[in-house]
Amino acid sequence: MAFRIGIGLIFFCLISFSLMGKASERKPVSDQNPLIVILTDGLPFASLKKSQGIFVEMFAEIQNELDIPIQVVTLPWKRGLKQLAQAKHPTVLINLVRTVKREKHYDWLSPLIVSYSQFASLGPEKLTPDLAKKKQRALVKKGTIYEAYLRQEGYENIMALNASVCQLSAMVEYGRGDFVFSGHGLLTSCLEEAKLDRLVLSDKVHAITTYMVSKWSLTSDQRTKLTNAVQAYVKTDAFKNLLIKYNYSSKNKADEQ
After folding, report:
1. Would you call 137 exposed, middle or buried from its count of C-beta atoms within 10 A (0-12, 13-18, 19+)?
2. Rounded to the nearest 5 degrees, what angle is found at the Cα of 87, between the Cα atoms of 84 and 88?
């Protein structure tokens, strides 16, 4: 009887050590999941349905060089921020503007684009900041850095609305606003997609730098590899050509930035 018990204990110990060895070989759970990249849904940034967009093409190139799995998803802006905040797996968000209010809430991984804001108004003349301050109906998307900028610079009669930039642009086209203020990429895309031919864009108003961010969900290896790959790619001619392709900048404007 004692002999059988002894054999049983030895067998149990062998199985336990075997399982412990296999467990020690397993990677952390976070390393077994793909790194999720959240892109803002809509051109010029991303349209997975059309396989188009600055960041869709950029990450297609980057993914070929990385040895970590990546899953690209596109979401409306607010849903993208919510998913990033609730992420249970390694997740990054593309194209967030850095502000004092946001500073401590994100891990700022890499700058992406130096863009700029503009006015869109009825032509044929371009609107200047001095003339814009005299207008009665300044349209801007509510809760954005563009609204904050107008208030900071002393603009009056601001109509901050819960509407898309394309909807605001259409309002100006049909006489329900004097101008809309937003980023170059969004305005250019809206004017082209909605065929708002009577609107003209102003010269650059102020510069904006956008970033790739996370909520500290990446492993050290993922963070290093992805950040290095993105920082290297945004310095290439291929990336500059993407900005030109999607009308996010001209060659001269890219050089100025």
Report:
1. middle
2. 165
* Statement to judge: residues 175 and 237 lie in one domain: no
pLDDT digits (tens, 9 = 90+) for 205-255: 999 899 999 999 999 999 999 999 999 999 999 999 998 898 776 443 433
Give the tens place of pLDDT for each residue, 151-166.
Answer: 999 998 999 999 999 9
* In the predicted structure, residue 23 carries a pLDDT above the cut 90: no
pLDDT in tens, 53-71: 999 999 999 988 888 889 9
Averaged pLDDT score across all residues of the chain:
84
Query: Does some domain include residue 120?
Result: yes
Domain that holds residue 56: 32-114+209-256
Nearest to 210 by CA among 144, 147, 158, 164: 144
Q: Are 140 and 223 in the same domain? A: no
Question: Whose structure tokens read 């290439």?
Answer: 236
Is residue 168, in this structure, part of any structural domain at all? yes
Phi-psi region of 94 (alpha: psi -120 to 50; beta: other; left: phi over 0): beta
For residues 147 and 221, membership in a common domain is answered with no
